[in-house]
Amino acid sequence: MKPRLLIVYSTQTGRTRQLVDAAIEGASELADEVEIELRLALETGVDDLMACTGLLIGTPENFGYMSGAVKDFLDRTYYPCEGKRIGLPYALLVSAGNDGSGAVRAIERIATGYGWNAVAAPLVAIGEQTEAQLAQAREIGQLMAAGLSCGIF
User: Fold this and answer.
1) How many whole angstroms separate alpha carbon 57 and alpha carbon 72?
2) What's the pLDDT tens digit per position in 54-72?
3) Is the pTM higher than 0.85?
4) According to a count of CB atoms within 10 Å of the terminal CB, is the N or C end of the chain lower?
């Protein structure tokens, strides 16, 4: 069975989706070796989280925090998955209007509670995405897929 990269995201303006699409483009280079599953945060649950071997979270920065939909996903899955996903490799994409630090801090803190392992520095794209930011998102997607494919995560 192929490793599964679960990409959970929320977007209102479409900017987070641009980052997610770039990450998918990067991960898709290894589509023969890694299954890529894209899910909206509000439609993602415990079974999805339990079935993945890697997680990529995409969120806008809303009022200096992650989106409510991503927070809802994390809240709904935390206790049912508590202690069951220790070591899960994850990465984070944030589309920000400010500096994105509040969203990053909050998700990193929750990820620590889950016992997840960050495998890339969070990408914070401030304002309209640049080609450089989209290239970074593609690299994160490639990294996640390659790490899962090789079994190094």
Assistant:
1) 13
2) 999 999 999 999 999 999 9
3) yes
4) N
Q: What domains lie within the chain, and their CATH numbers?
A: 4-150 (3.40.50.360)
Res 18: pLDDT: 98
What is the C-alpha to C-alpha distance for residues 149 and 153, in angstroms, rounded to an integer? 9
Location of structure tokens 């202690």: 83
What b/e readout covers 79-108, taking b as 16+ CB neighbours within 10 angstroms? eebeeebeebbbbbbbbbeeebebbbebbe
Number of helices followed by number of strands (H, E) in the chain: 5, 6
- In this structure, the number of other CB atoms found within 10 A of the CB of residue 33 comes to 13
